[in-house]
Amino acid sequence: MDDGRPLFVQIAAQVEASVLDGSLAEGERAPSTNELATFHRINPATAARGVNLLVDRGILVKRRGLGMFVAEGARELLRAERQQRFADHFISPMLDEARAIGLSPEDVVNLIRSTSDHSQLKEKA
């Protein structure tokens, strides 16, 4: 589980990925901090920090005496956050570079389409 990020951030990212791919559905009970700590062989306080990141962002909700549950709308919230991050980290720089070399947004769209079409043909072969 060591990708250079703090363990608690990795724990939060793992739970996020489960919500995004649907393996952890909205309204479903999320793994407890103790379950996460045992599974990953980490300190429960570290797992709790990861879970609390998700609570603070509205991805998980605490139900007193029952545990943590995936919040309603969590999947869409995560998608929106990821889309914005994608735009900020990839689309904006790409458009800046395109402008620098004289490409219009339409030219970029056409390049993406032709590249996508080419990739799909290679997959079929």
Distance between the termini: 35 Å
With helices defined by DSSP (H or I, 4 residues minimum), what is the helix count? Answer: 5
> Would you tell me the overall average pLDDT?
93
Low-confidence stretches: none
Overall, the morphology is elongated
CATH topology of the largest domain: Arc Repressor Mutant, subunit A
The CATH homologous superfamily of the largest domain is called Winged helix-like DNA-binding domain superfamily/Winged helix DNA-binding domain
Largest beta sheet: strand ordering: 1-2
Order of helices and strands: HHHEEHH
The CATH class name of the largest domain reads Mainly Alpha
Number of domains: 2
Q: If you compute it from the alpha carbons, what radius of gyration comes out, rounded to the nearest whole angstrom?
A: 20 Å
Q: Roughly what percent helix?
A: 55-70%
For the sheet with most strands, the description reads:
2 strands, antiparallel
Assigned CATH architecture of the largest domain: Orthogonal Bundle
Strand content: 5-15%
Structural class: mainly alpha
Count the strands? 2
